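*** Fold description ***
***
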Amino acid sequence: PMKAARFAVMLVLVGMLACIGVYTLKYIPAFVVNQVVLQEEQGRALPKRAMEALASQKGRPLFGETKGELSRQLSQEPLIARFSISRKLPDKLSVKVSLRPLEAVLVVAEGDRTQKLMGLEGKTLYPIEMADGDIYPDSVVRIVITPIYAAMIEGGRRTGQSGAVSGIVAGQYVLDNDG
């Protein structure tokens, strides 16, 4: 019984020391993010908000909330399909990202004025910020649609009817490159 009690006390002390050690890691200057290494599977640029989130990590504690906070920010970016974040001691944060493989970019335009962009993957539409319009290469088809047609597509998505999107996917609409 005496050995068991000693073992329990030692186990509690070791646990407390480990917790204190992990807690203090975020206050050691050697473990501050000085470099964020980014790797996108296709070598493309990332959406502007994702790049801002990555840049904001510099100077932050490597063992603080950095990884969790960055994970939350990247998971809110609709064009990012998946990502992984890892720490590389002493001061590096490594981020691997895969963008969604869009089949088309819908350009909502009236005349020469582009109003918004949407990415099409299967029957799912993702909003694209105007600043991110050039992330996908020219090999991704760009389809110019009117605001009225865009409203019809978005309205169909809200009501569960994806006829307009299905038509685009199935190639039922004639598209020519000359406009």
Notes: Helices lie at 2-25, 48-55, 66-75, 147-159, 163-170. The chain has five helices and seven strands. The two ends are 86 Å apart (CA to CA).
